[in-house]
Amino acid sequence: MKDYIRRILIAGIMLVCVSLLFLGGKSAKAESTNDWMWPAEGVITDTFGTRNGHHKGIDIAAEPGTPVHSVEQGTVAKSYYSDSYGNVVFIRHENQTETIYAHLQNRYVQEGQKVARGETIGTMGNTGDSSGVHLHFELHQKEWTYNKKNAIDPFVAFGDKEIGHAITVAGQPMNSIEHTYIVKQGDSLWSIAKKSGTSVEEIKAVNHLSHDEISLGQQLILPDELEDYTYIVQEGDTLTEISLKYNTTIDSLIQINRIDNQTIYPKQVLIIQKNK
């Protein structure tokens, strides 16, 4: 009986030790990415684990040619063209992780090259198996594998964000977001639009508002300071409706977003270029 109790105690102690080791490992992992920077500025359009669990990264949409940066210093493991990833760069880091930057328009680095944190490694594009201009970013523990068994949610490193969230690089504001307005007593979207020389629809688009209600103290981005902005496609939208609503042309939408066969889909982020 004493031998049985001794075995139970030993097993319990081992379980506690293993648990502490696991928790310590998670803490070390979190600390090791504290200084990471976002790989590109733009709008988050998809997150980890969507598409029935098959989406093993996050998507960030912006204009074609937007700079893409290494999130941390490391060594380029691969830099090539893939039928699925398009122009893609793999970077291995000192904390035993590997990051992937896919669908690039251009690649500026080669295999074996050392890169610094924040170094521009390419530009955002629409190459490979891609619908619309965006960066597909993946994070893997140790290294990338074909079945992506080592994939980690990038938000572990960057913090949780939602689809439609605008992100910045290294604390710098997005080029297209330069002027904000704080809602005052008695303001409405109509009165703000009139004062700023824009339209209610434009204000709603750049702030991703689905209704006309605003609240006292709310911060709004004013599109009168914007050259380009983004619109998230809703169910039932067509290019014709979007072009009419935002005073642009179908050809402009197709060209800047590299749309094939005039096909758009819900939650797709479109770059809207204002008429100069």
Automatic annotation (TrEMBL):
Source superkingdom: Bacteria
Any one Gene Ontology molecular-function term assigned to this protein's record: metalloendopeptidase activity
InterPro entries: Cell_wall_metabolism_enzyme (IPR050570), Dup_hybrid_motif (IPR011055), LysM (IPR018392), LysM_dom_sf (IPR036779), M23ase_b-sheet_dom (IPR016047)
Domain LysM: 179-222, 229-272
Xref: CDD domains: LysM, M23_peptidase
SUPFAM superfamilies: Duplicated hybrid motif, LysM domain
PANTHER family for the chain: MUREIN HYDROLASE ACTIVATOR ENVC, PEPTIDASE-RELATED
Protein name, UniProt field: LysM domain-containing protein
Source taxonomy: Bacteria, Bacillati, Bacillota, Bacilli, Bacillales
